[in-house]
Specification:
Helices cover 32% and strands 26% of the residues. The chain is of the alpha+beta class. It starts with a helix and ends in an 18-residue tail after the last strand.
Length: 170
């Protein structure tokens, strides 16, 4: 039973490390049906940055369980207790380090100047195979609450007619 619980915990940790990261073409289910404010601008610079991932503590818990389980096979009497405790401590440290390494990622920091003259930096995940938006490119900055992202907009028109049926009164 103990070995089965440890194996299931390790499997859950490994699967959680494979969670997909948001990309330019991927939205979360939380984004569906939610409006965002859009501002247009130009990328001034783009640089690669490291993103420290969120460590939930699951790695430490799983590591402590595995380490304690392994330590319980060492020695007898009080030596067995110390080996179990030592295994739990070492396993917790190793599990926390493994979870942090799996959670860390690479991102891109974009410096964008908007059409209104505001300059901002926005960091977003860099998904493998997705191109970095080059300096000088026209972009759309989507803002929803405190979340922002930069999307290429070179393919969008720069002028459109006012939608029919809309009358703006100044």
């Amino acid at each position: 039973m103990k070995k089965t619980l440890i194996a299931l915990s390790c499997t859950a940790l490994l699967l959680s490390a494979c969670a997909p990261k948001n990309s330019l073409n991927q939205y979360s289910y939380n984004d569906v049906g939610i409006s965002t404010i859009v501002d247009f601008g130009t990328v001034i610079t783009a640089r690669q940055v490291g993103i420290t991932g969120r460590n939930s503590g699951t790695g430490a818990l799983v590591g402590a369980g595995v380490g304690a389980g392994a330590g319980s096979y060492v020695g007898s009497g009080s030596g067995n207790i110390w080996a179990t405790l030592g295994g739990a401590v070492i396993g917790a440290a190793a599990g926390a380090a493994a979870e942090q390494a799996a959670a860390n990622s690479t991102g891109i920091e974009y410096t964008v100047t908007t059409e209104h003259g505001d300059t901002m930096t926005i960091v977003q995940n860099q998904v493998s195979g997705e191109p970095v938006i080059a300096s000088g490119s026209r972009v759309m900055v989507q803002t929803r609450g405190t979340y922002q992202r930069v999307i290429p907009a070179d393919n969008l028109p720069t002028q459109i007619k006012r939608p029919k049926g809309i009358k703006v009164i100044d």
